[in-house]
Structure formats: structure tokens, C-alpha cells
Amino acid sequence: MSSENKPSMPQTMGITVAVPPMSFDLAKDICRKAFGFRLFTILLNDSKAGEIMRLYSSNEADYPPGGRKPMGPTPWGDIVLKRGICWLGDGEEEIRWAFPDADRILSLGCHSCACAPIIHEQQVVGVLSLSDDKGHYSADDLAGIAAIARLLAPLVLLAD
């Protein structure tokens, strides 16, 4: 394999860590098969700025990586980012309650959203978010989504 085709080898605390280039893609594929979605995003919690930043999106045209929104100082942020609790929103009213960009989310046909905090050492470092049609997700789905979110912590930390 030539050097330009090798996976990146980020340095973390002096230790070289091999990160498979398709790690977020693998999480997306697992979530698609297990739960389905119209929109899949992995978000970094920038608690100092009170924002989340999109690290990965299944819809880069409407939700490109690097996009930010002020979610820390919101009721949703208190639940998911501060307390580390999964959140399930279903219907236009709940989507509007949670997200400042609700019009865009709803325009994509996303009227149900399941969010699981990505936690490392008792700190929320990110969020795994799946969105789809109204009624698509249930409270029963949250345990599985949270299990996948836990596996994403090392990758989110490398992106920080």
C-alpha cells in the first residue's frame, strides 16, 4: 500500500492510533439496518461555546459537516448535553421545541428524532442523532441507539 492510501494515524497523547476511515460510515450502516433514518448525524459537544458541531451527516447537502448550532443553553441541551439523557421527540411541536433549525428538519420529512449522548468519562462529548417520519422511533429504540453512541466516544474524541 502506498503512503497516500494508508489510513490517517492521528497522534493522541503521544500514542499513534489507527482510525479506520469508514468508522462513522459503519455506525451509519448499523443504524440504518437497526432503526432506519432520513437523517443521521454525529455531533461534537463544544461545551465551552455552548454549541454542537456536526462531525458527520448522511445528508451533506442540507446538513454539512462543520455546521454549528447553539444547543447548550437550551432545554434540549440541559437534557442531552448536561444530564446525558437520551431524548426522543415525535411530531412537529416537539421538533420545534428542541431545535432552532426546526423548519429545515421538518422540510426533510423528519418529524421524529432520537438523540443519544456520546459519553466519555462521565462527560458528554457528542450526540448521535437519527431523524425520520413521525412515529418512526420509540422509547424501546433508545437503548440500542445509546449502545451505538457509547462506541463512538473514541472517534469523537479524536475529532475534537
Features:
160 residues; alpha+beta; Beta-Lactamase; six-stranded antiparallel β-sheet; two-stranded antiparallel sheet; 34% helix; disordered N terminus
How would you sum up this structure, described in words?
The two termini are 28 Å apart. The protein has one domain (22-159): Beta-Lactamase (2-Layer Sandwich). The chain has 160 residues and is an alpha+beta fold. The chain has five helices and eight strands; from the N terminus they run ββαβββαβααββα. 31% of the residues are buried.
Topology:
Layout (H helix, E strand, L loop, with lengths): L10 E2 L2 E2 L6 H12 L4 E8 L4 E7 L10 E2 L5 H8 L4 E4 L1 H7 L3 H6 L4 E9 L2 E10 L6 H21 L1
Antiparallel strand pairs: 1-2, 3-4, 3-8, 4-5, 6-7, 7-8
Could you tell me the radius of gyration in angstroms?
16 Å
Strands of the widest sheet, in order across it, are: 5-4-3-8-7-6
Number of helices: 5
Please state the overall shape, judged from the principal axes of the Cα atoms: globular
Total of domains: 1
Which second-level CATH architecture applies?
2-Layer Sandwich
Q: Return the CATH topology.
A: Beta-Lactamase
Distance between the termini: 28 Å
H/E topology pattern: EEHEEEHEHHEEH
Strand content: 25-35%
Helix content: 25-40%
CATH superfamily annotation = GAF domain
Structural classification: alpha+beta
CATH class placement: Alpha Beta
